[in-house]
Amino acid sequence: MESLRRFSFVSFIALLAYFAFLASAEHHVQQFVIQPRPVKRLCRTHQSITVNGQFPGPTLIVRNGDSLAITVINRARYNISIHWHGIRQLRNPWADGPEYITQCPIRPGQSYTYRFKIEDQEGTLWWHAHSRWLRATVYGALIIYPRLGVPYPFSMPKRDIPILLGEWWDRNPMDVLRQAQFTGAAANVSDAYTINGQPGDLYRCSRAGTIRFPIFPGETVQLRVINAAMNQELFFSVANHQFTVVETDSAYTKPFTTSVIMIGPGQTTNVLLTANQRPGRYYMAARAYNSANAPFDNTTTTAILQYVNAPTRRGRGRGQIAPVFPVLPGFNDTATATAFTNRLRYWKRAPVPQQVDENLFFTVGLGLINCSNPNSPRCQGPNGTRFAASMNNMSFVLPRSNSVMQAYYQGMPGIFTTDFPPVPPVQFDYTGNVSRGLWQPIKGTKAYKLKYKANVQIVLQDTSIVTPENHPMHLHGYQFYVVGSGFGNFNPRTDPARFNLFDPPERNTIGTPPGGWVAIRFVADNPGAWFMHCHIDSHLGWGLAMVFLVENGRGRLQSVQAPPLDLPRC
């Protein structure tokens, strides 16, 4: 009887804790109105596509365990969808957002409500358009705080500062895309980088809009850095100040100090910064890390970290003192980029799969499509070709009559095939002098099936076709562990012995070392259709993508939930 009372008491306490958790979770209801608004940058005003008239868009602030219902109302002239980058969307691919993968796009004049829950995630993520190049201006931060009463694994500052790095074109980005699609050549590079939507002091007509962040001497702040740029990895630094890295892609890390970070498109990095320098004004700046033999935007965006007690100039020319400029790595400094990435470690022992059920090897890189008439205006790529990109020589083509997930759920044939190859169809010296006969990929809409709860390992191998390059690869619906990386060709006999299976960093987007490889592992515990693609949007449009179809497990809690009634139709 005494043991029964004890059991009842413990059960009662557990029930109270459960109800307290439910009471602490919030339900967030918002509208995102997609609409053109005048935005002036670099001396010119453009009718840019915005969310609620804001550029960048609104910051979403939630807690682990909260649920969201965000109604996207499309008042623009383009089809659109919104992706909640890094949110796992457990059993709910319908809220993931990539057009023609998990939904048909929201057409002009229509709306769709994304309903999803934050489940066991906290940290810095972001949201963005997942329709062609609309994400150039349609993006914003998504900040997830821990559940009430749950501490951070580090001393949390009292103040957060979101830092959104972006790219700006001095014309309609959709026109830039259309021109590239017509000619088959590379898209024109951007005209500026931005910090929170502003280019900064070094660009024409931009000094007045330069973002300024006031800070008190001795204060420690957390910078939540998001690379929302379309096509460029970036170095980021603050003059004379050190960063303490504490999180990447909403996963805590073992803290370490650095004066510069390298961050790829799609990635987030949280750093602590302490105002321990002489009171003054200090530039924070971002410039390109360009690993490819290709044109790039070689400009620098700036904002100003300004001590509240910064002195002013006296006498003639009185006013604020000039900001100090940081030392940034050279644009091709792969050694610094690699050294930063290699220091990342999960904050404790990671639950990384020790055994592997699916051992996949994917080449990732560019290619060229030969033209029957090389002199055609539609064949303006190298030597009269059209640019392409592929994984395992398969160049992904988006369907148009239905989304992959809807066709999969409905059992509709003819939309995609499930014969994406687990290894390259032809083995070759991936980072050597590749025969031109291997430069042209095969186009198709191909997926690869995974059993529910399979332990998956993927080695992503860059190639030297056209040019070696750092490709930031993003996997929807999952976080994964980066267990190893290196330069040259992956050696399956010797390289796995060097894998870190104790505390590898957890991410949702990881770059392939240029002319090298990276290995990731995850458990396929989220059923649905999940896009894997390069987060350089030029490469995505050329076909550097594929889809995983993760099968249902047993019962309702291991199966994809039914689609919502307002899911857009093609």
Account of the 3D structure:
This protein has 5 helices and 34 strands. The protein is globular and about 75 Å long. The strands form 8 sheets. A 6-stranded mixed β-sheet has the order 10-9-12-17-14-15, with no helix packed on it. The protein has a 6-stranded mixed β-sheet with strand order 23-22-27-32-29-30. A 5-stranded mixed β-sheet has the order 11-19-18-13-16. A hairpin with a 2-residue loop joins strand 1 and strand 2. About 3% of the residues have low confidence. It is mostly beta strands and 570 residues long. Its EC number is 1.10.3.2. GO terms for molecular function: copper ion binding; hydroquinone:oxygen oxidoreductase activity. It catalyses: 4 hydroquinone + O2 = 4 benzosemiquinone + 2 H2O. It comes from Arabidopsis suecica. Its cofactor is Cu cation.
Give a topology summary.
Layout: H1 2-24, E1 27-41, E2 44-51, E3 60-63, E4 67-74, E5 82-85, E6 111-117, E7 123-129, E8 139-145, E9 160-168, H2 173-183, E10 192-195, E11 212-215, E12 220-227, E13 233-238, E14 243-248, E15 251-258, E16 261-263, E17 268-274, E18 281-289, E19 300-307, E20 312-313, E21 319-320, H3 334-342, E22 358-370, E23 385-391, E24 394-396, H4 404-410, E25 442-444, E26 447-450, E27 455-462, E28 472-475, E29 480-487, E30 506-507, E31 509-511, E32 516-523, E33 528-534, H5 537-542, E34 545-550
Parallel strand pairs: 1-4, 3-8, 9-12, 11-19, 22-27, 24-25, 26-34
Antiparallel strand pairs: 1-2, 4-6, 5-7, 7-8, 9-10, 12-17, 13-16, 13-18, 14-15, 14-17, 18-19, 20-21, 22-23, 27-32, 28-31, 28-33, 29-30, 29-32, 33-34
